């Protein structure tokens, strides 16, 4: 698969087949992602890959917290404010996703069930937690984004699907305990990995993008 094909084929996958991913493939994906650029080659990424029993225990604990209504508390604070244009795009994506799932926006229970899917890690057989030293600046978060996308494109090459999700890191203390992640590392994002279930209704909705003319300005000949 070439890069353009991988870019076009990648979509956030919210339902997975119960099929394990072999360790060699996981390593190949991370090896490929490791070629990503970073500020002065600092390579700030530290990955913790959870699968099998440890992941299932964590999944159970996440679900328990969610059902008890424990407020998520991510290591990287979530934005408190979005500019109007961005708010609109969030709203559009949310509305379209609910419509595709056949969920009435006023049906709180159905919406809650949809959110719960995040806390069961979309039934993915693997979750990769991308971490970095807490003392690093926003520039290193930029690097974390680069390595994350590289990882997701490499996964695509190996016939695997992914989703980066902030709700996968909603309860960092639980992740830290289960995976022995040192306190000095911020758990930035969780990326679920596995073989997507193309028949699931959760995977039917494909997000749209703004036309290129709207966000590109070419100045000069
Ligand atoms: C930093 C980040 C956090 C995200 N968190 C979540 C999440 O918690 N739950 C979820 O369902 N999707 C999450 N997503 C997926 C986005 O909703 C998705 O990337 C976006 O709607 C575009 O769709 P696509 O990935 O299918 O192209 C997240 C994506 C990013 C980059």
**Chain-averaged pLDDT:** 98
The CATH architecture is 3-Layer(aba) Sandwich
Described by the principal axes of the CA atoms, the overall outline is globular
Q: Order of SSEs, N→C?
A: HHEHHHEHEHEH
Provide a short characterization of the protein structure:
The chain is α+β, with helices and mostly antiparallel strands. The protein has helices spanning 3-9, 23-33, 52-68, 84-101, 108-119, 138-157, 172-179, 212-215, and strands at residues 46-51, 126-133, 161-165, 185-194. Bound molecules: flavin mononucleotide (FMN).
Description:
The protein has helices at residues 3-9, 23-33, 52-68, 84-101, 108-119, 138-157, 172-179, 212-215; strands spanning 46-51, 126-133, 161-165, 185-194. With 221 residues, the protein is α+β, with helices and mostly antiparallel strands. The chain has one domain: NADH Oxidase (3-Layer(aba) Sandwich). It has a 4-stranded antiparallel sheet, sandwiched between helices. Helix 1 (3-9) crosses helix 6 (138-157) and helix 2 packs across helix 6. The longest helix is centred in the C-terminal third of the chain and has 20 residues, at 138-157. The radius of gyration is 18 Å and the shape is globular.
